[in-house]
Amino acid sequence: MTQPYQGIPNQFRRDLLDKKRLIGCWCMMASPISAEVMGKAGYDWILLDGEHAPNELSDFVTQLMALKDSPTAPLVRPQWADPILIKRLMDIGFFNFLFPMIGSAEEAKAAVAATRYPPEGIRGVALMHRGNQYGYVSDYHDKVNENVAVIAQIESLDGLNNVEEIAKVDGIDGIFIGPSDLSTVLGHFNDPMHLEVQDAVKRIFEAGRAADTAVGILAHVEDHARRYLDMGLNFVSIGADLALLKGGSLALRERFRD
Q1: 52, 188, 220, 224: which one is catalytic?
Q2: CATH class (in words) of the domain with range 11-255
Q3: What Cα–Cα distance (Å) separates residue 238 from each residue in 13, 30, 246?
Q4: pLDDT 10s digit of each residue in the chain, 258 long?
Q5: Residue 220 annotated among the catalytic residues of the structure
Q6: Where do the structural domains in the chain lie, given as residue ranges?
Q7: pTM to 2 decimals?
């Protein structure tokens, strides 16, 4: 017996398109328990990282299972906008993607195409997978194309120079600023508040606003996060599970030092 898929429409994508303020957090520990705890905290979204964390496909499956009953929307950042990897990530149940190092409108278009079934894109078809509840869903293939969120991460000089064109690409629902890489390529390693970096952040934000595209950023220093929210950025990551564990562990140990 088949049934409509309850995860469609994708509320996170709707909120992104409506430019709602969405507060998120990074998950880097490749742990379903960590993901479950973070999900219960009530963030609007959680990013499961495949670029700078030791996550493999099977790790993502268990974390998605841990978030299944959570109000938090799971996003994934793959290592690269590789169509084969994207296909596998969608088949295990991801609907929201953050693609790193997008440097041109052509790369953004290719990333979008990899998340869509033909004729809108190039995604390969399988009839039974976790994304459509192993074939129990009757309307998955009809509705999924319009319910996938695609976010382009701007963190290179190419991305910065082409951000106005990237933000206008059909199917790009958001652009996301990677402050660590962006500050590094601008010659200011680990200094995202440098004036030149902040000018670049403003340029990216203005490009998104001109294209009516949501803009987000990673800002794990509270003052920085509040600054960006006051600027009008739409979705902001304010912390990471690994950093929270490290900070809490150090603080607890320090309280008991002689």
Answers
A1: 52
A2: alpha beta
A3: 19, 19, 15
A4: 445 555 567 999 999 999 999 999 999 999 999 999 999 999 999 999 999 999 999 999 999 999 998 999 999 999 999 999 999 999 999 999 999 999 999 999 999 999 999 999 999 999 999 999 999 988 999 999 999 999 999 999 999 999 999 999 999 999 999 999 999 999 999 999 999 999 999 999 999 999 999 999 999 999 999 999 999 999 999 999 999 999 999 999 999 997
A5: no
A6: 11-255
A7: 0.95
